[in-house]
Amino acid sequence: MKVQQFEDKYLAQYSYAVLSECENQIVLIDPSRNPNPYYRFAEEHKAVIIGVIETHPHADFVSSHREIQNKTGVKIYGSKLMKASYPVTPFDEGDSIEFGKIKLKALNTPGHSPDSISIVLEHNGKDKAVFTGDTLFVGDCGRPDLREFGGEQEALREYLAKQMYSSLREKLAKLDDDVVLYPGHGAGTLCGKALSDASSSTIGEEKQHNWSLQDLPEEQFVKELTSDLPFIPVYFSYNVDLNKKGAPDFSPSVAAVQIAKKINSEEDTKDLDKQLWVVDVRNDKDFKKGHLAHSVNIMEGEKFETWLGSIIKPGESFYLAAKDENQLKKMIERAASIGYESRIKEAFVLDFAEQEEALLDLNNLKENPEEYTIVDVRNPSEVKQQKIFANSLSIPLAELRGRVKEIPTHKPVAVHCAGGYRSAAASSLLSSELKGKADVYDISEAIKEFQK
Question: What are the Rhodanese domain coordinates in residue numbering (predicted)?
Fold first, then answer.
């Protein structure tokens, strides 16, 4: 038997292949959008994929379960509560999948979502591991507020938090201490608050160190779980729906993105729709030297997908601009991991500038901060921990497009985050949205000089 963990480091997401070495058969758990790594793994082990299990319809990434089913004819297993629009073989408490000496057993563990399941791996008659999806992480548990939106959201969040309390104690904590924990996410995901950097653990370790498995009254647990939650990117509900429908095949969908000729001159921009955002993935220094109008600088970086799906709404089309063809192709694939490749109107290499960003006089800001409207685009929890400028206006980047009118324009605007990535996106967005009403500056990495 072999368990292979796959990582999408950009979304801090783990997927798994469970291999029976005696039967050369594989069951996949929560596969990412690109199915090719799983096919390669099967080829390397001269094995066949016999099934795909979804622990729940994911909010933060698009799964390739439907593509794998279409190509191989295997069954997709998931809770009967999933309500998917494709054929799903029910996999709820009491159900199991047996191949070789392996038995995969379903546990209904609602809390992150009503339809969440965990999967216990039994080998040679003994429980060896558990795949917990977004229910139990290393050091944390899943948040209960990502799946439903609208007027009943708060009530549902508390209801799911209570279900999480029960799932952790009545199902997962009752497994043997030496059972290996394989979570659906690691540190950096927005599906939890305070995950460990570790990619696996044991039930015994989590009983000792994970706050969510400690001896807490339900009321205290619910209060802790539902407080200070991270923001919810606008693409999350879109991904849940797409995962319930089944996404288009990865490679053909990526190949269908129209790659236009290189933008070298004003003439090359004449057919661009000026109402659409240009998502410019180049580094902030190149962007500030020159970019197209109505551009937002979401740099290539570890959080590209998160901020693309937080700033650009699921129904919007956009252009994608990069420094060269290699970067362009890479970022199209990364956009596809959240199902946004279909929203790219055109992608192109950019070597022309319609606008440039003014550079901040850092010394003047240090000496006269009152002369600026300073916008802090960090998350509320970061601001709560340390407010860097006493009179700054706090608007998290994820909310900025909807709150531009709150920003006074009678003074220059200076934008900061914690290190420069978010402020590059925010300052470029504001520069476009304010339409010359105020000069906009990016404090960028220089923010470190203001932190005590």
Answer: 272-361, 368-452
